[in-house]
């Protein structure tokens, strides 16, 4: 990992932490007890990567 950042949030019932993170372009990895969020840009990159990568033909072979 090349980039980590701590973000302090002021959370109340009218402004949940998950909503605040999504508005900042981050995807919360837990709905309630948040300890990690991932950039939406990184999620889009990984999604594009897996859609466009060559299939692993070894994974489909049955062991002898």
Automatic annotation (TrEMBL):
It comes from Hydnum rufescens UP504. This is CxC1-like cysteine cluster associated with KDZ transposases domain-containing protein. Residues 9-52 form the CxC1-like cysteine cluster associated with KDZ transposases domain. It holds the Pfam family CxC1. It comes from the Eukaryota.
């Amino acid at each position: 990992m090349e980039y980590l950042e701590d973000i302090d949030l002021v959370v109340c019932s009218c402004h949940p932490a998950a909503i605040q993170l999504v508005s900042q372009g981050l995807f919360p990895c837990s709905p309630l007890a948040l300890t990690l969020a991932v950039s939406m840009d990184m999620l889009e990159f990984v999604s594009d990567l897996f859609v466009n990568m060559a299939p692993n033909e070894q994974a489909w072979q049955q062991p002898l």
